[in-house]
Amino acid sequence: MIKDKWVYSEKLKEHFMNPKNVLKDENIAEYDGKGIVGNMKCGDEMMMVIKVDKKNNTIADCKWKTYGCASAIASTSILSEMVKGMTLDKAYHVSPKDVAKELGGLPEHKIHCSVLGDKALRAAINDYYLRNNMPQKIETEKARIICQCMNVTDKEIEHAVLEGVRTYLELQEHTKLGTVCGQCKDEATRLLNEYIKEHFGK
Amino acid sequence: MAKRQVYMDHNATTPLHPEVKKTMIKALEDFGNPSSLHTFGRHARKLVEEARDSVAAFMGANADEIIFVGSGTEANNTVLSIFACPSNKCNFHGKSQAGIITTSIEHPCILEAAKCLEDRGFGVLYLGVDRYGKVNIEQLKEAMNGQIGLVSVMMANNEIGTIQDIKTISEIVHKRGALFHTDAVQAVGKIPIDVRDLDVDFLTLSAHKIYGPKGVGALYVKKGIPFCPLIRGGHQEQGRRAGTENTLGIIGLGKAVQMRAKEMKEEEKRLLKFKTVIKKALEETIPDVQFNGHPTDCLASTLNVSFEGAEGEAILLYLDLEGIAVSTGSACASGSLDPSHVLLATGISAERAHGSIRISMGRDNTMEEVEYVIDKFPKVINKIRGMSTAYTKKVRKQ
């Protein structure tokens, strides 16, 4: 019998084998907020629902469903455990890096699989704010246009980095940024390196 | 961890045939350099040439038409790279002014070598395929009206198992005076191959797909066809591939084709039966499955199937926890963002490609293993679909 290390961390394996808080055929209407993100074409889609403890402004329950790979399943499972009892504010700011750390590390090319979980969670929290007449609480993702010609924002650069982009050339291919006048090259390169450092510590 | 281990990923690689293993263990003692004139060298030479005879006999070629190389990838790169050699001392000189035709479902070692030639200014056309993965013959005929020097079409596809009509294709190609190469890495040892009958100029094979060792392959080059080496600096392989021979690997390859000649026919019958059983069981026990590849012109051992609403890497890893080894066309398993280029070329949706699993059986698989696999599949798919947003939506729509 072959006994080697598993393809990802043991923690990830545990959550992959026994995913926590999977949304069964329950009534989604019972939940206070719902977020769906992703795209089937890319091979992943994520739905998160939350129940809110309105007195303490904390997440009382969090359930999910996903179409995705082992890393997507495990990272959403662990995220749903992490945010239970957390204040909405704190939960809103859980990053893919926090999830990857909790999982005992994720290979670089798998980071983008874990991004969907926290995105869906933010969408669910925003949905809760909307339903409860608190639109002022919604933190719009403050996007700043970097490439004026192709209308590419800093958020899109960050997203590209999470998807695996590491060089300016790759960024151009991925987002079409800097393919017209090229004036944004320095700013885009600076942001690119900043996001790589932020998410991958390099 | 599962008690049982069922290996059904033979298109990726195969275990050594016990007879190959025996032969190789014995050959570990034969350390001589086949180029040396003394007893040690002559003995090694004899073993290498015996292996060459076996490989040649297996495909109806002459021994001097077989070149041993380091891998199927090397053989494929050799054909494409030497064709584009710009030197006027090269046998190919002039020919390379013409374009190259290949297909959209080739192995990456052909596609990336072709892409490199494109970057160097050569014209390359990638033929499309139909929904079963068969090359568009009409498109080929039309393209052959242009100035074409080389056509490369794989014999059987590694992912979906579809077998091309190589004889028809080589006839069309030769009628226009171009050279024809076929990457037969997945076909050799699974379907009968006669290079004279098929009339190919170059043919690639690899040892580790036919129960031989890794790190050795062979390239058939028809007598009289121009050639120039990719790797230079030695007289080995008639000056066509420099570097001291991988004697151990070559001896293993020789034994592997001998065993294939004996076992292939019966084994393919057995594996085709297994495939029919698995296919029927999957259809009966799991809703929303679709099979990819050609229904009849397909390798007996290869079954490619898509499960709606279930992602391939997750299926693969849950099956692995049950001890079952298969592969997937999903992007998530490869580290890229795009699913299998072969499946996409057949025109299926990205979603179906992400949910694809390739089962490729081999000589060690038993009916008992087939039953074990049939038993585990529905459990795994149900588990994944139970947490799938995609599948819930689908069920709700019905």
Task: State the gist of this model.
The complex is a heterodimer of chains A (202) and B (398). Chain A is an alpha+beta fold.
Task: Please tell me about this protein's structure.
The complex is a heterodimer of chains A (202) and B (398). By secondary structure, chain A is an alpha+beta fold. Chain A has eight helices and five strands, in the order αβββααααββααα. In chain A, a hairpin with a 4-residue loop joins strand 4 (145-147) and strand 5 (152-153). Chain B has two domains: 6-14 and 264-397, Aspartate Aminotransferase, domain 1; 18-259, Aspartate Aminotransferase, domain 2 (3-Layer(aba) Sandwich). In chain B, helix 3 (72-83) packs parallel to helix 4 (108-119), helix 9 packs across helix 13 and helix 10 (312-321) packs across helix 13. Chain B starts with 5 loop residues before the first strand and ends with a helix. The A-B interface holds A 1-3, 7, 16-17, 19, 22-24, 36, 40-47, 64-73, 107, 109, 112-113, 163-164 and B 1, 3, 5, 309-314, 317, 321, 330-333, 335-337, 339, 350-351, 354, 386-392.
- N- to C-terminal distance of chain B: 37 Å
CATH class of the largest domain in chain A: Alpha Beta
CATH topology of the largest domain in chain B: Aspartate Aminotransferase, domain 2
By CATH, the topology of the largest domain in chain A is Sufe protein. Chain: A
**Tally of helical runs of chain B:** 14
Structural class of chain B: alpha/beta
- Order of neighbouring strands in the sheet with most strands of chain A: 1-2-3
**SSE arrangement of chain B, N to C:** EHHEHEHEHEHEHEEHHEEHEEHHEHH
* Amount of beta strand of chain A: 15-25%
* Structural classification of chain A: alpha+beta
What is the mean predicted local confidence, pLDDT of chain B?
93
* Rounded Rg of chain A: 18 Å
Contiguous runs where pLDDT drops below 50 for at least 5 residues of chain A: none
| Largest sheet features of chain B | 7 strands, mixed
